[in-house]
Amino acid sequence: MNRRAVCCVLLAAAGFAAGFAAAESRHLPDGVQPSIGAWFCGDDFMEPEGYRKYVDLFAERSVYDLLTMSVRLKEREITEPAVRDQVAAAVAYARKRGLKVALDLDARLAREAFRQRYPEEQQEMLRLRTVPLAASGEAELEIASDTLTDHMTGNTTPYIPLSGRLVRVYDYQAAEDGVLPETVRDITERCAVREASDKAVRVAIPCDASTEGRTACVMAAFTHLTPDVYAPHLEAFEREIVELYANVPLAGLMKDEWGFPPCHGGCPEKNDFWFSRFRAEAYAAETKGGDLVRDCLLMCLGERGRERERQAAVNILLRGSRRRNTDLEAHYYYLAKDFFGPDAAVVTHATWTPFPGPSEFKKNGLHWWAAKRTWGQTDETTPFAARTALAKKWGGGVWYNQFYSTNPDDYRESLWTHALGGGRINYHPLYPAPEGMDRMDRIGALLAPDIVAGESRLRLLPLISRAPVDCPVAVIFGHASAMNWAGPAYGEVGLGLTDAFWQAGYYADLIPSSEVLSGAFRVDREGRALAYGAQRYAAVVLCNIDLEEEAICRPFFPTGEWDTMVFHIGHWMSNFAGRQYFGNEALGLGVGYVKDEAAAVAKVIEHLKRCGIPPVTPAEGRLPNKTVCPGREGHLRLTDGTVVFLNGKTNAAGDPISGTFQVAGQDIQAEARGLLAVRLTADGKVDALAAGGLERFVGGGLSLDLDTPTDLAYWHDGGRPRGALQDAAGPLPASLAALTDDWLRLETPAAAAAKPPVEPLPVVDLSDDTARQVVIARGTRQVYQGHPTTAMTGDRKTMFAVWSVGHGGPAGPMARSDDGGLTWTRLDDQLPAAFRKHVNCPSLYRMEGPDGLTRFWVFSARTEGMDAAGSMPRIVSEDDGRTWREAPPLGAAFECVMTFSSMVRPRNGDWLAMYHRRSGPDKQGLEVMQTVSGDGGITWSDPVVAAQVPGKKPCEPFVFEAPDNSGLCCLMRENTHTGNSLMMFSDDGGKTWSTPVDTPWGLTGDRHMGVRVPDGRLVIAFRDRAPESPTDGHFVAWVGTYDDIRKGRPGQYRIKLLHSHAGGDCGYPGMELLPDGTIIATTYVKYRKGPEKHSVVSVRFRLEETDALFKKATGEE
Length: 1117
What we know:
The protein is an alpha+beta fold. Helices cover 19% and strands 32% of the residues. The strands form 15 sheets. Strands 1, 30, 31, 32, 33, 34, 35, 36, 37 and 38 form a 10-stranded mixed β-sheet that branches.
C-alpha cells in the first residue's frame, strides 16, 4: 500500500506549544485559490480503471488541489453512458485520493449527439469568392471547403464539412475605391449549380453583353460538424449534458477556448464569415431588417460612398459575436453553480490564439474580459497586461495561465515569471509531445521535485492575501475600433503602451472599452478614482477610442476631487453607427490629450512619481509574441499593500532571498528562499508573512530565528492570528508558538514519500451474512429511508429507531422493537403531526434529569418553513416512548447543519451534547459546537465552539468517556476527505479540548458511533472513508481500545458490516449493546442491487464471534 503514516502525538513539552495541530494536508483549505493541473484523457482512459494510474500520479507526486479534466476520445462522446460511468468512477477515485475535479462538459465534446438531435443547427461558414465576367459564354467558379481542427479535435473527429450549398451570387462593377453600390445585382437565379457537396460548391455563371466588365461574387455556405454558436437549442443541450453528470462529485466545470471554430490568421481577406440562419436572424433583429448576406458583400469588398455603413455593419457583426459567446459562457457558468453548488469553480481560459488580434476577433469577438470564470484565466503567451486585468475582473488574487511547452525547463522559468507578474501556472502536460513520451511521462516530467518545491512555496501566498497584483495604470483600448477592419485603427489594442509601463516598473492592466460600457470599469465607491475590481487606478490612458458607443464617456466626468489622471491618444471621430461624432470633446475637460504613446508614458510616469508610487522590478523579458514579461527575480506589490519578493533565477525550487528590504518605508531583514511576502499594518506591525525556507526575519515588531529553514505563512483572519507550516515535522518552535496556536500543517510529496507506509487493519467481513440483518424500514423505488439513530430503554431490550425520508429530508418515521431489535412496529401515526416538519437527521437520546425522571428526546436540525428561530426542533416522551409531544425548538442560537450527533454525561451529572454548524465569513467552513444541559435536556447552555481546524472541516462529533471516567474523547468526521478523521481529548469534562489531530487510519470515516463491551474494548461503527481502504464507502466497525485511540495506535481489526450498493452513501449508525453481548449496528444503506432505494437495516453480532473469525483469518487460533 502507498498509504503514509501521519503523526498524531500531542506535544506538551517545555519550549513547545501544547496541542499543536499535527494533522497534515497535502492540499490548501477550501476558499483559498488552488494549485491547478490539467488532465487531458486519451483513449487509455476507457480501459478498466484506466484512470487510476493518472490519479495516483497526481495524488502522490503533485500538490495540485484541482484537476481540470477533459475527456477527448476517438469516436466517443461525453453523452455516452459508458463514458459518463468511467468519468464518475475517475472523479470518485480522485476525491478519495484528495483531488478535486472540474470537468469539461462542453457541447463540442458531443458534436455528433447534437447533430443527431438538431441537424438544422450546425455551424456554417459563408465563403465569398470572386470571378471576372465576360461578354459571352460562362464563368465557372469552384469554392472549396475546409476541414478545421483545433485543441478540441486533436484526438477526435475534426470540424469536418458535412455539406455545401449556394447561398447567393451578386455581380457588380468596381472602381479603385470599391464596389459601385448602384451596380450591385442579385443574379443567383441565373446561375447553375454544377456541384454542391461537402468538398466544394461549383457554380456556372452565364455571360452576355450585360456582364462585360463586371465581377461576380459567389457566396457558398459549408455546414461543419459542430453546433452553431447561435443554435437555439444549444443552451438546453449543454444543460442536458451537465444534468447527465449531476450526481458526479465534481468541484466545478471547465470551459476551454469557447467560440466559433478556428480561423487561424483571422482571414486577412475578410471573405469568410461564420454564418447560419439563426445568426442572420439575430443580425436582422439588431439592424431592424438588415440582410446579413448582402452586408457580408459590403463588409468584405467595401462600397463607394458606404464607408460608414460598412463600419457599422462590422461593428454590429462582431459585437453580436462577443455578446452571444459571452451569454453562452455565462449560461455554462451558472450551470456549474446550479448543479454543483455555489462554490463550484468554473475554470480554464477563454483566450485562444492567445493574442488580442484578428484571429481572436473572429473566434469570439475578443470576449476575454466578459467570459465568466471563477478566477482570471489565460493560456500560453497571453500578454501579461491582459492576465493582470482578468485577475481584477474575476476576483481572487492570482491569475492562472495554462502554460505548455515541449521542454520542462520552460516551466521552471515560467513558474517564476508568472509569479512575478501576479500569477501561477495551470500545468498543461508537455506539448507538443516529445518523441517517445506517453501521457504519463508528459505529466510526470512536470512533477520533478524542484518544480513541485517551487509551486509548493508559491502556494503559501494565497493563504495570506487574496489581493491581486497592483497595477497603478489602466490602458483602455477601443474594442470596436480595434476589431473593425473598415476603421482606421484595426488591430491596435494598446500593447505598446502596456509594454512601456511594465518595462518602467509600473505594471498596467489592459482593458477593452466594452468593459466601460458593461459597468465593470467604473468610478469607485468613494467617487474619487476609476476602478476595476479591487484595483484603483492612479492613471488611465484611453487608446484609439473610435467607432464606439457614446456611453463610454460617462465614467470620465469627475464630480469632485479626482484621484485618477486620464489621458487620451487618438481622435474619436465616429460613433458606433459610423456617424460623425466629436468624441474628444464629449470626453470632457478632465481628460488630457497626448499626441502619441511615448508622450502618454512620460506624462503618466511623471504623475505616478508625484503621487509617491514607487516602481516595482521592471519587466525585461519577452514572450514569443514579443510582448514583455517579468524575469525570475524581483519584487511586486499587491493591492492590499503586501510586498512580494521572489527569486527563482537559477533554481525552480527557489534561490536565496537575503538582506534588508523596504516594505512600506520600513527596513525588513530576512533570510529566505524563493518567496518572501510581507504586509504591515498602519502602525507598522507585521500583519502577514509568507516565506519559503525562512531562517531569519526581523522587522515590523516581529523577530524570528529558526533552527531549520521553514516554509510558513502567518496572517490575521478577522483579527485572529493564524498560520501554516509546510513540511515542518516535529514540535512547533517556541517563537512560532508565541504567534498563534492555530497552525495548519501542509505537506509536500517529498515529505509524504519519506514517511513509512501504514498497512490497513485486517477486516472481518460479515456483509454477506444475511441472517444477521434485520430490515427495519425497506426502501422502495420511490422512498429513500435515511439517517437513523436508535436508543434503548432501561430494560435493555426495548429499542426505538427514528430516521428521515430522503437524504437529509424530513423526519416522521419511528419504530419500536420489544425484543431487542429482532422485530419492529411502526409508530409514525402516534407522533405529533409537527414532527413531519422537522428536517435532517433526527437524533434520538434517552436522558435522565436530576429529578430522576427519564425522557426520550428526538432533536432535528431545523423546522421546515421557519427561519433560524426554528433551529433544533424536538419532540419528547416522558413515559418511555408510549406518548410523545412537541417541545419548543432550541432556537436561533442553535442554528446548525445537523443536530446533536452525540452526547455524554460526564462525572458532574450534566449532559454534554455536540454538533456542527457552518463557519467563516462565507459560511464555507465547519466547526464543532458543544452545549450543556443540567436538567435532562429541557434547557441548554449557550453553545460554544469546541473545535475549529484550519484547512479542515470537522463535523459529526462522537463524544464518549474514557473507561476509567478520567476524560473524554471526541472523534470527528473530516469533510474535506483529504486525509484521516480528527480527534481531540478533554481532561476536564469538556470545558477545554486539546487541538484536533488525525485519528489512526482505521478510524477514518463519517458519523462515528460506538459502544464499550464488558472487556473494555470499543466497537465504533461509521461509513469507511480511510484512504486506500478496501472497504471504502461501506458500513464498517473498528475494534480496539481507548488507549489505542489516545496513543494513535491502529487498533485491533475492522468489521465490514454491510456492503453499500450506492457508493459511499451509508452510515449514520445507531449502536446498542444487549445484556448477552449482542451488538446491534443500525444504518441506512442500499444493501442490495436493484431499483429500490435505501433501507434502514440492522446488523447483529457479538465480539466473541468476530474475534474467532479474526483469529482464524490471521492464524492466531
